[in-house]
Amino acid sequence: MAAAPSDDDGAATFTAYDSRGTAHELPLDSATDRPVYLVDIDGAKAVAEGLKVIDKTLESKGLGLPAPSAGAGLSAASGIDTTRIDSVRLGDVEEPFFKGDAEIFTLVTGFGKDGKPRVDTVEMPYLNKEDTTYYPGQVLVNWSDYKYDMADAVMMEDDGDTNYQALAKAIAAVLLTITDQGAYIPLVDALLNAIPTNWWTDDPDYVESWYTLARSSSGQRNGAAGNGWMTVSPYHVPEL
Fold first, then answer.
1. Which 3 state secondary structure label does DSSP give 58?
2. How far apart are CA 214 and CA 197, in angstroms?
3. Measured between alpha carbons, how far is 230 from 134 in angstroms, rounded to an integer?
4. Max alpha carbon distance in the chain (Å)?
5. In 3D, which of 96, 113, 200 has the Cα closest to residue 154?
6. DSSP label at 112?
């Protein structure tokens, strides 16, 4: 038995204990030749709660304000236009074998209706294996939240001990320095530059990014890092 180790400290092994309390050093980079019980947190629940922290923190900074009401220019009868993920596949989910399934989430960023950069979080609990194609039919971008018909997406993987409040504050500190120039500019690089250097090793891991997803984007879009792709399509959600 062992506590699930963090893979951000440069160690090549972790310590497990048998029923007699004897310590055994096991490798981090390959599966063991004997059963090992690992004690870890519920990653899916941790991500869900962590993304709530990001949403709340960014909203308090003015970077994730709610969409305008129907009376503010959005027709109640028209519904909303979105971009939907029809299928998605990753080559590497950045999750070491001993931690089991990956916990993937995406940060969608662009300029809000107020002209300020905004970030929306998208939980992707189904996307947990590499080299596997998923067909979620999941809404990625709600265009009623954005000023321009362009947005960016940064996909990340949580390894269990992410400080989501610190992540949100770091993102806000950088994005608040960017002003609307009257035309869309990609925000992927700014968002990635906001992530503290040590978080590129384990918590969370950068997985993939997509620049300038358009409101009209359709078909397969390959990620900028060459680690994955997704097929997207415009999807209108009618008003009830």
1. helix
2. 30
3. 9
4. 69
5. 200
6. B
Please tell me the distance from the alpha carbon of residue 240 to that of residue 238, in angstroms, as a whole number.
6
Q: What is the DSSP string of 170-196?
A: HHHHHHTT----SS----HHHHHHHS-
**In terms of DSSP bridges, do strands 2-3 and 38-39 run parallel, antiparallel, or are they unpaired?**
parallel
- The pLDDT, as a whole number, for residue 89 is 96
Whole-angstrom distance between the N-terminal and C-terminal Cα of the chain?
A: 52
Q: What is the mean pLDDT of residues 145-152?
A: 94
How far apart, in whole angstroms, are the C-alpha atoms of residue 61 and residue 168?
10
Note the pLDDT tens digit of each residue in 47-63.
677 777 777 777 777 77
pLDDT attached to residue 98: 47
- pLDDT bin (cut points 50, 70, 90) of residue 156 is confident
Contact 120, 64 (CB under 8 A): yes
The pLDDT of residue 234: 96
Q: What per-residue confidence (pLDDT) applies to 72?
A: 39
Query: Strands, E, within 52-204: which ranges?
Result: 80-90, 104-111, 117-124, 133-134, 138-142, 150-157
Which pTM was predicted?
A: 0.69
Beta pairing partners, 109: 119, 152
Q: Do 224 and 209 touch, CB atoms closer than 8 A?
A: yes
What are the domain boundaries of the chain? 2-39, 43-237
pLDDT number for residue 187: 87
Residues 134 and 205: their CA atoms lie apart, in Å, by 20
